[in-house]
Amino acid sequence: MDEIPQDSVDRMMVKCARRCCICRRFRPTKLQVHHIVPRSQGGTDDDDNLIVTCISCHADVHSQVPFTRRFSTEELKGHRDALIRMVAEGTFPADETDNADAFIGNVLAEVVVVPGVTGHEGLSREAIEILLRAAHAEGKSEGMIVLTDGSVGFSVFPGNQLCPYRPGDHRAEAKYKAALDELLRRGLIEYRSESLREVTHVGYLAADDIASSRG
User: Fold this and answer.
1) What is the count of structural domains for the chain?
2) I need a labelling partner for 163 at 20 to 30 A (CA). Which of 57, 80, 138, 198 fits?
3) CA–CA gap between residue 213 and residue 205 (Å, rounded)
């Protein structure tokens, strides 16, 4: 991957106020700065050739799906310039928030589990909760899911946050264990050790997709 100078990355993050130029959502730690025209095709590190995107939108920008219209160079620049104008003018909703707990609560309230559905669409509420809490965590806890199994029972700590169920609630424990198995089977998390699981790249994309569809 072409490395962009840090001062250019910092400048673009400020211009875009740490928002994705495509979905325009505030994603403080889930953003990437990349070239609109790759260096291999003559692109430069100038600001005019850079764009800020979240992980899922970055994947969409580079995808080549038959019978769909790809992002053109001018369209990408247009999205970026429109966002920069919005940031400069302060035209975003005053009540907009990136509060992870509030967002996750809203998502879980809308979840409808469809048995037999593949992909993240068929995940249980508990699996979605684990994935979002881990993927939206900050710092060293980001993507980490710690498991403990002691005298008070089995506990799950996605992103260093305890999943909210009472110790000794065996029915809840069973649901969260099943949720971890769901995430492993679908490749959204991976096994690191007996007490640690980690969100995969596919898992981050799924978490962003869930956030985009319900955010």
Assistant:
1) 2
2) 57
3) 12
